[in-house]
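Predict both folds.
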Amino acid sequence: MADNRGKKFTIKSFRTHSPMDPTAARSVWSQLAGAVDEIHNRNASLLSFEELYRNAYNLVLHRHGSLLYDGVCEKITQHLTNVAEEVHSAEEGFLLQSLQIAWEHHRTTMMMVRDILMYMDRTYVVQSKRRPVYNLGLYLFQTVVWEYKDVKDRCVRSVLDMIAAERNATSVENLHQHDGLLKSVLGMLLELGYSTGMSGGNDQNMQPKSSVYERDFEAIFLATTQEYFRVESLECVSSSSVPAYVQKAEQRLKEEQFRSSRYLASTSCSPLLSIVETEFIDRHAKTLVDNPVSGVATMLRDDRLTDLKKMYELFQRVPPTVEFIRATLSSCVKQSGEGLINDYERGAADAGTFVRGVLTLREKYSTIVETSFSSEKKAQKKLKESLERFLNVDSRAAHCLAIYVDESLRSGLRGATEAEINDQLTKVITVFRYLQDKDVFEAFYKQYLAKRLLSNKSVSEDAEKNMVALLKAECGYQFTSKLEGMFNDMRISKDTREAFKAYKQTSLTRTKVDIEVDVLTTGYWPSQTVAPCLLPAAVSDAQSDFLKYYLKTHTGRKLQWQTSTGNADIRGNFQPDKGSLRRHELCVSTYQMCILVLFNDQDTLSLKDIREATNIPEEELQRHLISLCTPKHRILKKASRGKGISGDNDTFTYNNNYSSKLKRVKIPLVSMKDCMSGKNPGGEANGGAKNAIPAPVEEDRRHLVEASIVRIMKARKSLHHNDLIAEVSRQLSVRFVPSPPFIKQRIESLIEREYLERDDRDRRLYKYMA
């Protein structure tokens, strides 16, 4: 290893800094100015960019940055002044091309100049808070070329003319031939908009930052666009059908969106589409919806779901306009529903037809909402409200639905598969959900269910139980507890009949007739206030035997006979004037049995005689008598003519010439209106009292409302009037919707009975009295 201990280190002083004088600086700038000219003249390949960068670096380093910056600004301005004159002198058809060429050349020039003056951008420009070199070039192009005389106006007009030509083009040939030119020119305006950016802050003497694109082009473009589409939409709405108009609007929206992607700024897309939506959709929405020839009502009527779907999707672009379509949907549903009600009221449709019409209506519009409205929640709500509105005008719908269920479970579903039965019952529950008076439906349904169970007329016990299960799932166990009790009674009654039959076989007593009794729990079944009729002696003896057996088997119970609901099988002997004796087994009601047995003693009886002998209520007596006098089943012959009975002196004679091909003959009952000729006008057949709330239901409602009020007040202790009304309505909505006046009546009743009291200081505040 060499020994360097003998060498000495010498520390030299810093070299003296010699600043560049102004003369030398101007000399260096002259070289740079010549280079800028060469770049403008497209001779950049002859230059040494390394040397030019070093010269610019030295100028800035020796504090001659102002000289350099101002010189560059002046040079660029001089060059652009010549460019502006060239652009201005170009013919109209070549103006944009001339501007495009000048812009592309200027951008290339400024990028080269920016590379040479990079050091100045990083130091002098930042410290002096002036525009960077490239931004300076943009700003100068804007002020010197773009704003030169009428260049700006002519260019904007040319761009708008090209766009208008595109919009008016009837063919796609050469449709996009100007896309490159337009994209270049509009891109230039966008880039010029950023020319005001400063380095290190904003100079008070400089103009504030703004977008040349938005100010000089976009505002004018959007205004002309709005006027163009305003005129076009007016022409189209007056001359085209709604589907054609919708197709035109969709086409325009797609075209403008495509235009935005081709050469407009991304910021222009939203306001541009908004203008098209305003002019084509918002401005004419109601006119289109209400069009009497091809509007929404016509689409709904003719099931033009595809056209409606396209219209809905178009209107969705302006959400408030969709409400017009929903309103028309609601109106059409209500009109169709009112038509069903009118048909029912004038007797053109029965209850079953009415309910089937409701089901068809609901299915049709549910499909429309699902298909054309894409299952929109608001449309579904509108449909639900519309159905509820016409179904809850009165209690008519609840009664009709109960009749429809009765018809279905009595005979309509006979032969149907289990899946078909479940599907039909599910449809019934669908309509049931729309009813507010669910307790009215329950009352009527209970009456019809009782008749089916007692007469054994149900198509299937499983179908009956499925219906009750669906009601239970919909409204809770309290709603169906009595219905389930009815089924339980029928099961127990079957066991009781079998036990009584065994008892008679072991008993020494024998009766002339066999009697089968259904024992029903009073609280479960529809209340009957009809007094028992006078039964024939043989039937009365059998009745006494059952009573003794039942009371012996079940202590502490009381039986009340309901003779208005039974039926009987009796044997009739008919000896015609000519021919042999004919025997038929007649299946009749209990009332009919009591009437027919009277003719064992006399061949002719008057209405008054029959009434006194049977004690049957007047209306039911006439109904059952007329049923025995019908042309098909004329067991008795009525003296008076016509359907009705003339009076107490009208007589009935046993018809010994009665004949039937059947050995066992069922005698059906005529409807009540047929036996009340002249007393009940046909126009009231499906209206009148049937639309009123049944008295038992009204009474139950009073008790339910009072119980709910007491239950709420017992828990809350005190509550304001409106809060109590709302809470009671909420609790009872599963059965019915009580009106505020009705709730107020029950509150007053409870106050009178000292369940509640009013606060001394606030009369609308109720307190619970323990």
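Second protein follows, with its predicted structure tokens after the sequence.
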Amino acid sequence: LNDVVVKLIKRFREREVSVKVDVLHAFDELVRQVLAKHGRAHISPAVGVLVKHSDKLMSSLKTVLRGKGKDAKAAAPALQLLKRFVTSFPIEPLKIHLQTVFNESVRLAVDGNVQASFRVEALQLTSEVLSAASFSPDCLHNPSFDLLLPCLSDRFYRIVAETLKVIAFALNMHLSQGAAWVAAFCDGVEKKMHATDQDQEVKEAAILAVTALLCKHSAVVSDEQGSSLVRALLERMKAELTRLTAVRALEDILTSAPTNVAKTVGLLVDDNRIGELTSFLRKAHRGVRIAATGVLAALERCGCGMTNRSGVEDAMGEVAPLIDVEDWQVASKAILYFSALLSSQVGGGWTDQIVAAVCARMETGSLQSGFRSEACVFLGEAAAQGRLAWQPLFSRLANIGKNSKAAEKKTVLRDAAVLVSAACSRSANPQAAIEELVGQLGSDDATVKQLVLLTVGEMGRMVSLSPSNSAVHAVLGELKSGDEEDKLVASLSLGLMASGNVPDFLPLIVGQLEAHQEQSYLLLYAVREVIIAAVASQEHLSHFQPHISKIIGVVGAASGMASTDEGLRNILGDCVGKLSAFFPNEALPTVDQLLADEAGSTIALIALRSALTTNAQKNSEESQSSLVPMIAKATLHLASPSQDVRRGTLLLLQAVASHVPSLMRDQRDAIMPQVYSLTVKDTSLLRVVNLGPFNHTIDDGLECRKAAFELVDMLSERVFDVISLHDAFKVVANGLIDTVDIKYSTISLLRRLMEKAPAACSSLTPTLAEPFLALFKEKPKKDAVAQEVDRFNDVVVMALKVFVAMRTLVSAEEAGVFLPVEKVIEDGPHKDTFSALRVQQ
């Protein structure tokens, strides 16, 4: 590869233009294949060759781009190659070249002697350079955009639009150009916004540029210029083509610009404009409704809402029904608006109606997180103003929890607790509310009891309770009595309370762990909740340091009991794994010991997987590297006789593929053959259970085999270079005749293989004729329920799509092997779907 790269770069100087163009196209294809195979994040040996010669390459491309006369014909493929590098090359080695590429792309963009389409491509390249530079803004040294201002007056609309996009990108990156430049830009962009003969793309780009200017550089915009731009923006709301962009821009300015700027802008939006915004809520366009509601809320927040009382009532009447629509984002914006009204001491009369609408959404199942957050803000504000009592809300939500489906009850009660705690925490006396809640723990109603526990936990997370609080003693008492479900909810409540006051609660929980080892599962469940909260906030982690050895000691003592308790194994592994991510010196030796023990190896595998995920969340490459030796040792468990251990190892490798793909490359020869072997169905793991009048076959190897298929599918997406196509097609052949769940992963794998290596796959696809024949001959079980039949039909349709795509890779001579498959399909119930897919293909 090194010799090929060197020789091709030398031939960029070819005197014959057509040859030079062919050389550039060939080099571009070479770069595409190398970077597509190895990705942007990983500098493989092949990518390293390109990095080694990048200086010479950039110099040669610069020479080609400056060619005159006939040589100018080679500029287009040279620019395409340059764009390939900027968009796909690894960021670190690319940084040193970004300044050169930026200068060259701007020079080409303003060159009036070249074709307009070429200038457009140069401007697009400039945007890509700024995008790459956003990872490290200091790699561009005082980039000047003075040269681009004349482009705003160009006759070709695409040049104007792309110029505005480049300037908007630069302004969003805080690349300030000074007051004189800003004044000239304001004049140019305002003309584009007012002009009636400009293309929609130009106007939308102008709006985006104005938004970036007012949000990020308002200090260098004069009051007169700012007001003029806002008025032009408000005019653009009237035009249907630019309405969505204009309304979104206004929302961004009101919510993201400095407070004084937002206030100034808000004062320019008079009652008539607010009336227009209210009318937009009746539009069918979802984006306009969301943005308009956001603008109305933002205007109330900055004290610039409608002064006309009847107009406010009209707006509330339009917004209130939006809470009931199926679209969660629309409903969230509607709640946001009413929260803003309450903050402005307006709209209190609608409180009961809004609460009823929120409860109605609860009756349909769990709440979307954004909607739940906005509902909490509203309920808290209503309670603070004395417009809402938490007791009726609690009773109402408890009844909803009782009537909810068993599968949804946990999430519904958790959502209900969050809503009630939001109201309680802002009430006149939160401590009295907690005591009143604790008084209901004696209820015979399990739903009420669990909702009390969860609400008290959420309250503790928000108001920081003391360990001596009566609520804490009551929750600890619930850990020792009641049924198992109540105990689990109590442990979650304890963890939530502890996350609000880690320094005081953590010693209490650790003390309980040492004194009551029979409650290890419940108390470690609480510890895990504290760790999750600490990781999310990046606070209080230091308070774990004095207690690490005690927690680890409990894990070691409980590991023997966990051999038959999957729930305990998961909790032990997750706790140790999360602690290992922050305290590797203290926790990893225990993981290593567990890994060497057959009974504890499953816990160790869970711990390593948890540590990998936690390190990825805190973006710590150093911590990830400390896990690599242990993960390499853990892969030996692929050969374990235990199905649970093998499955745990496969799940760990899935996390490795996501977070440390380089390790998969380093261990490919040792890992992949075993992974492929685990996709083969082992008939010795099948057992028949007599269930009275009929027998039921149980496959003890199914979960492990499913994990193996999922791993190969994930590797084909994230670390494709570790995949052997020949072995992967054997995996596909096995998966097509396996269970429905495995068929899903198999079809996804086959589709990805064909996308990434179509030429190589063409010679292997005939080997899948028999498996596809068996798949399409298969029928749902006679006793299958409706859901199972639907899933089976979904798999068949997915298989038909990939089969039709696969047939296009096969030559006419080899297509004969698929004729029996096609006949089975055409004689079956999916013949119409098959015909339609062939027509589309």
